[in-house]
Amino acid sequence: MKLVTFQNQGGAEKIGVLSASGNSVIPAEETGVFYESMQELIGKGSREEFSALAKAALEKKGLPLETIRILAPIPHPSQDIICLGINYMDHAEESARFKKEEFNGERPYAVYFSKRVTNAVADGEPIDGHFDIVDSLDYEAELAVIIGKEAYHVAPEDAVEYVFGYTVLNDVSARTIQMRHKQWYFGKSLDGFTPMGPWLVTRDEVTWPPKLGIWSRVNGELRQESNTSLLIFDIPFVISELSQGMTLLPGTIISMGTPAGVGMGFEPPRFLSSGDVVECGIEGIGVLTNPVK
Length: 293
Ligand code: MG
Description:
single chain, alpha+beta, 11-stranded mixed β-sheet, binds magnesium ion
């Protein structure tokens, strides 16, 4: 099923499930499921409650999409997002070229970094380019994995049990800021640099491990096109490796990295400008569309 966070008539943030037809949302409270946020549902929801939501998606009418405002599925993550850097080989090559670094085609260890998100940007909402301080705004279509239960010392073959679901994430990046501060944190954490959504797709809807087409378009032009089967370090590896030393809590978001075709990969680079429209899509998950402000 597809879980959403939404606002009705400008009211409080609520959670619900997308109807099977895809054109309405059934509020969770209408199915007897009462949680204040998606993170609370992920951490505390029972098997019976998830069954009730799945049933409602098939049977209930719900609120038409045009009457509500869909928010990012986890609008206010309780911890920074864990990100994978250069986790597709073709992106590793273009990234090294842009940075004028040597790249020998070997990547023995995963690159982990984090991204701060106070308010994740919803599908359809604008990305603030911060053009007063940003001269190299870039997009990165990524598969984001949401952890469903506390994970510590997880073996790769057991990792699937710890995955709650998936969403599409655009790891918006200001390249100059990203590079000049050595750590990528600032250049990837400006307000509004994390569009996410349109919804959260539960694990059962996707084959394991996910082998899904992933792409991005800028103003309709295809820029990135790959498949999540080409991840260098895949989801079972990442959950296992991280959990050997750090506890991953329910609601943790892990963004798996982006394939080749980002703006800095072109010669000359093709960065984003005000008025551009970026679409990031993943087969079976959804399409996330955001104009640049
Ligand atoms: Mg990224």
